[in-house]
Amino acid sequence: MNNSSNISQANLSNHTSLKLTIRQSLIMAYRGLLKVRHTPEQLIDVTLQPILFTLMFGYLFGGAISGNVHNYLPIIIPGILVQSILTGAITIGVQLREDMEKGVFDRFKSLPIARIAPLAGALLADTIRYAMVTILTFATGYIMGYRPETGIVGILAVSALVIAFAWCVSWIFALAGVVGRSAASVQGISMMILFPLTFLSNAYVPVNTLPTALKWFANVNPVSHLVTAIREIINHGVITHDFWLSVIGGIVILCIFAPLTVSAYRKKV
Amino acid sequence: MHQILSMTKNPLLAVEVGGLVKHFGDNRAVDGIDLKIPTGCIYGVLGPNGAGKTTAIRILSTLMNPDKGYAKIFGHDIEKEAHIVRQLIGLTGQYASVDEKLSANENLYVFSRLLGLSRHDARKKTAELLEEFGLTEAAKRPLSKFSGGMRRRLDLAASLISKPPLIFLDEPTTGLDPRTRIQMWNTIRNLVSDGSTVVLTTQYLDEADQLADYIAVIDRGKVIANGTPSQLKASVGAAALELKLKNTADEEKAKQVIQSLLMVEGHLSGEGVLTAPLSDPELITDVLLALRNNNIQLSEVSVKTPTLDEVFLAITGHETTQSDITNQYSVSVNNN
Predict the structure, then answer these.
(1) Are residues B170 and B293 in the same domain?
(2) Lowest mean pLDDT: which of A49-63, B231-245, B282-296?
(3) B63 vs A106: CB contact, 8 Å cut-off?
(4) Are residues B19 and B84 in the same domain?
(5) Residue B127 lies in a domain
(6) Which residues in B lie closer than 8 A to residue A35 (C-beta atoms)?
(7) B63 touches chain A (CB under 8 A)
(8) Is the model more confident about B4 or about A248?
């Protein structure tokens, strides 16, 4: 060791530039990926679930709803995709809660890094999880005989849409993670948000079979619009108002929950 | 050293604290602390659990804001210039502040990258620090297989990546075995010889005595004494004489003997057990002879180095508060 310090006078600023913030967020995302490498079991929800749900719901409801499995696939695959990806999104809250209880967060707080970097990094790392859901859902669908009309272009387009939407929604669960008292309570709260949002939609069954009140909710539910938008893009190659509604829905969620999460997080950090 | 001094507003004081207060509900964890810590020393903050040591360190390292008062690190305000302060400090928390799910290697690499090192430099720095702290062999092992001592070493290594001029160590040896503890002491001494200032908290008087140039004793959120270790020990006595009386009825008489010979007041620590600070071991003979002459019978005699309890008794006249009693202070002190 010698007496020189790695800190030079030029670096001694009271702010973090945007460039550094992005850099530090990417490094935090890298940390998230390293964690996945050490504990691959945390990928169970984004690997087994899409495979299992696609097989199960496909063969279970196919005959009842669409006459046969083959006709049901264009309806159920987009539904499962959205359901699985949103289930994958709730992990962010539980992980943030667990992280923030650990000693390592004290170090992050005492480092001269952007306050937002640990949060942004965790959200970025989740993109990998969403990509896995997308790939596995379409792969299982393909094995069951699903051949979307728009082919690979349609798959890539809807993947981008659904991942972007999940990224917006994950801020809701991130907020639950930041303000929740324990990992278990965060899990509970997130499930309570997730279940009505995904099941009370047109993801599995046609909305016109539902009682009035549920029908109303399913029709305004942004998840329904997203599922419809995906079905129309991938099966018919058309972009309808549902696409725009789900984009707007995602942006609204982002605009409400990202600032809330960040401010709650800053108060805790 | 010159480089470190040139970038600081106040090169002489590493830490300056005035009227610092932090409440948690009704609990005044920090209750008006004033401190001046000169650059280049090891400063020991000595106190029992719950005295406010950790809270004070957390405020100084920008993890939380104080309710009242101010604190400056090399002249930079911890609230207004928090980001600058973070560039000047390293923190090793009471519970290892490293990533449990990553290996030692990955921990140091990620922290190095966050501190702005390039990929190449971060790898080099990681290898250097692993080597220096004797962790090279364990570098790729998961942290769950690490011993307490290894974890602390890794934690300290992570605090040294940017070679900060000020390092906070919160109870760096609590829970370590004696051998690892001495290793840790040597590491801490080396830090100061490199020009850094170290602020460490401890519950152990001997640790503060071994390491610190200056000690502040804190209790119930207040600094109750400060000075060099020798000044502090002089007020307590280098050692304590403990007498166990056969007959508890002799307590008062024995106290008088101690008062007249040792010029200090003995206090009762348990049934028929008298403890008194002992500045000169030669005086033991006199005390024992006087007790014999007064027909006071003893069942046990021992000389002990003073515990934190005795320091507290000497300074404040009260024992460390109830919640502070830990295993090492299993001898409870009754100060009726």
Answers:
(1) no
(2) B231-245
(3) yes
(4) yes
(5) no
(6) 99, 101-102
(7) yes
(8) A248
CA dihedral over A5, A8, A9, A11, signed as positive or negative: negative
Backbone angles phi, psi at B266, to 5 degrees: -80, 155
pLDDT, residue B325, reads: 35
* pLDDT tens string B74-90: 999 999 999 999 999 99
Establish if B70 belongs to a structural domain: yes
Read off the pLDDT of residues A132-163 as tens digits, 9 standing for 90 and up. Answer: 999 999 999 999 999 998 889 999 999 999 99
- Interface probe with B: pick from A2, A4, A7, most Cβ of B within 10 Å: A7
Is there a single domain that holds both residue B146 and residue B48?
Answer: yes
- Site of tokens 């290594």: B157
- The confidence band for B62, taking pLDDT boundaries of 50, 70 and 90, is very high
Please check the confidence at residue B282 and state whether its pLDDT lies above 90: no
A contact test, residue of B99, B107, B167 with most A CBs within 10 A = B99
DSSP string, A194-221: HHHHHHSSSSSS-GGGS-HHHHHHHHH-
CB B61 within 8 A of CB A269: no
DSSP annotation of A234 reads I
User: Looking at the predicted complex, does its ipTM rise above 0.95?
Assistant: no
Mean pLDDT lowest among A1-5, B149-153, B240-244: A1-5
Give the count of domains, chain B: 2
Q: Which of residues 107-136 of B touch A (CB under 8 A)?
A: 110-111, 113-117, 132
Interface of B with A in 186-215 (CB under 8 A): 190, 194-195
Q: Which of B164, B198, B233 is the last residue of a domain?
A: B233
Q: Which domain holds residue B317?
A: 237-329
- Residue B323: what pLDDT? 37
In this structure, what CATH number is given to the domain that contains residue B249? 3.30.70.860
Measure in Å the smallest separation between the Cα of A125 and chain B Cα atoms: 15
pLDDT at B317: 63
Contact B97 A35 (CB under 8 A): no
- Going from N- to C-terminal start, the domains of chain A cover 18-268
Could you tell me if B77 and B180 lie in one domain?
yes
Instruction: Check CB contact of A19 with chain B, cutoff 8 Å.
Output: no
C-alpha distance from A130 to closest chain B C-alpha (Å): 22
This prediction's pTM = 0.78
> B165 in contact with A at a CB cutoff of 8 Å?
yes
Mutate to test the interface with B, among A2, A4, A5 (most CBs of B within 10 A): A5
